[in-house]
């Protein structure tokens, strides 16, 4: 890769950011397509986020991804939000459009693509349970509701946050039957039977802690398990599901698909299999 005065600059804002796989996959795609562009990690602490966005704009940076913990706060510093990002209330992709920075969210699309590609599941009319009520849960809920799920149970450690999401999204998706649960084995025992797909969008398991909240004895054999966390060794949830014979996968496919969608927004080009090949 040669950087010249013509090279377009992209990147990712996060805290921490050094473990992000996005530079590897985005640079692989720029190289594969022969584009004169480079993607760099920017470590930005929350107090510096507004200054960082203003600086990126002044420096003619063409676009960035946004990761933990900035996805929600960065909305306030956009010139405009795409409708989907506004509904989700979080941005993971910023695109320079003329003199404006426009906020998009490609996480939900990444999840739906990965569900199809990695688990071969079409969620239309299905009974789905989302574990978690944070930013990733919101992108999942909007994407799943758009796909026409029949019933959507939101189970969260802090039940109030799950309830707030139902109040936020029920008016936009009147055909979806929303339900709330706390994230304990006892509570899930009463609501999990008949579920076709469980999506983990909590951070539980991220640091290797055991995933001990699912009452496996009432999870039907037909149920698919999707963990947004990813790990080459297998996340605690994926290992537990696999051991019991459930069809399951981790969030690597979602990471790749959200990155491919961001790349298409920035360049108007399809990255093909470049990102998947760089990571898998
Ligand atoms: P947030 O901080 O916004 O939300 C975290 C969620 O996890 C909350 O619902 C929180 O519950 C719950 N939680 C945290 N710790 C525990 C615990 N010990 N036990 C039970 N619940 C817990 O994070 P995000 O929504 O942005 O991200 C969540 C996860 O999704 C992360 O692991 C992230 O890596 C992953 N992710 C993966 C993506 C991919 O492309 N594969 C994309 C985006 C996210 P409470 O409300 O009670 O605090």
Keywords:
single chain; 280 residues; alpha/beta; six-stranded mixed sheet; six-stranded parallel sheet; 21% strand; binds NADPH dihydro-nicotinamide-adenine-dinucleotide phosphate
Write the layout of secondary structure elements.
Elements (H helix, E strand, L loop, with lengths): L7 E7 L7 H11 L4 E7 L5 H10 L4 E4 L13 E2 L1 H6 L4 E5 L2 E5 L2 H13 L7 E5 L3 H12 L4 E6 L2 H11 L7 E6 L2 H7 L5 E4 L23 E4 L8 H8 L3 E3 L2 H16 L6 H6 L1
Parallel strand pairs: 1-2, 1-3, 4-6, 7-8, 7-10, 8-9, 10-11, 11-12
Antiparallel strand pairs: 3-5, 5-6
Helix pairs in contact: 1-9, 4-5, 4-9
Bound molecules: NADPH dihydro-nicotinamide-adenine-dinucleotide phosphate (NDP).
Determine the mean pLDDT. Answer: 97
Total strands: the figure is: 12
Strand order of the largest sheet: 2-1-3-5-6-4
Bound molecules: NADPH dihydro-nicotinamide-adenine-dinucleotide phosphate
Helix content: 25-40%
**Strand composition percent:** 15-25%
Quaternary organization = single chain
What is the radius of gyration?
A: 19 Å
Shape: globular
How would you characterize the largest beta sheet?
6 strands, mixed
Could you describe the 3D structure shown?
The chain is α/β, with parallel strands linked by helices and 280 residues long. It is 36% helix and 21% strand. It has ten helices and twelve strands. The protein has helices at residues 22-32, 49-58, 83-88, 107-119, 135-146, 159-169, 185-191, 236-243, 252-267, 274-279; strands at residues 8-14, 37-43, 63-66, 80-81, 93-97, 100-104, 127-131, 151-156, 177-182, 197-200, 224-227, 247-249. It has a six-stranded mixed β-sheet. A six-stranded parallel β-sheet has the order 9-8-7-10-11-12, sandwiched between helices. β11 (224-227), α8 and β12 form a beta-alpha-beta unit. α4 (107-119) crosses α5 (135-146). The radius of gyration is 19 Å and the shape is globular. The protein starts with 7 loop residues before the first strand and ends with a helix. The model has no long low-confidence stretch (mean pLDDT 97). It binds NADPH dihydro-nicotinamide-adenine-dinucleotide phosphate (NDP). Residues 68, 107, 110, 132-137, 156-158, 161, 183, 201-204, 206, 228-230, 251, 254-255, 258 line the site of NADPH dihydro-nicotinamide-adenine-dinucleotide phosphate (NDP).
């Amino acid at each position: 890769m040669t950087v010249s005065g013509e090279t377009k600059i992209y990147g990712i804002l996060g805290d921490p950011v050094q473990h992000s796989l996005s530079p590897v996959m985005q640079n692989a795609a720029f190289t594969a397509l022969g584009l004169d562009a480079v993607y760099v990690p920017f470590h930005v602490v929350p107090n510096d986020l507004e200054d960082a966005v203003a600086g990126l704009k002044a420096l003619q940076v063409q676009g960035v991804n946004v990761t933990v913990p900035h996805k929600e706060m960065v909305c306030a510093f956009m010139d405009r939000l795409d409708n989907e990002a506004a509904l989700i209330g979080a941005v993971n992709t910023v695109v320079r459009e003329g003199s404006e920075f426009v906020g998009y969210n490609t996480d939900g699309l990444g999840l739906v693509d990965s569900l199809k590609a990695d688990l071969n599941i079409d969620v239309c009319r299905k009974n789905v349970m989302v574990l978690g009520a944070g930013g990733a849960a919101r992108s999942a809920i909007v994407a799943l509701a758009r796909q026409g799920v029949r019933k959507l149970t939101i189970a969260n450690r802090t039940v109030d946050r799950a309830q707030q999401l139902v109040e936020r999204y029920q008016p936009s998706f009147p055909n979806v039957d929303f339900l709330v649960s706390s994230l304990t084995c006892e509570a899930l025992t009463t609501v999990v039977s008949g579920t076709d797909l469980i999506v983990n969008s909590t951070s539980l398991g991220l640091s290797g802690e055991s995933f001990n909240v699912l009452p496996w004895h009432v999870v039907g054999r037909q149920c698919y398990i999707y963990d947004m966390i990813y790990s080459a060794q297998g996340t605690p949830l994926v290992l537990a599901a696999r051991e019991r014979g459930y069809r399951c996968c981790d969030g690597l496919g979602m990471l790749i698909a959200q990155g491919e969608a961001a790349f298409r927004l920035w360049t108007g080009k399809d990255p093909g299999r470049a990102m998947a090949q760089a990571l898998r």
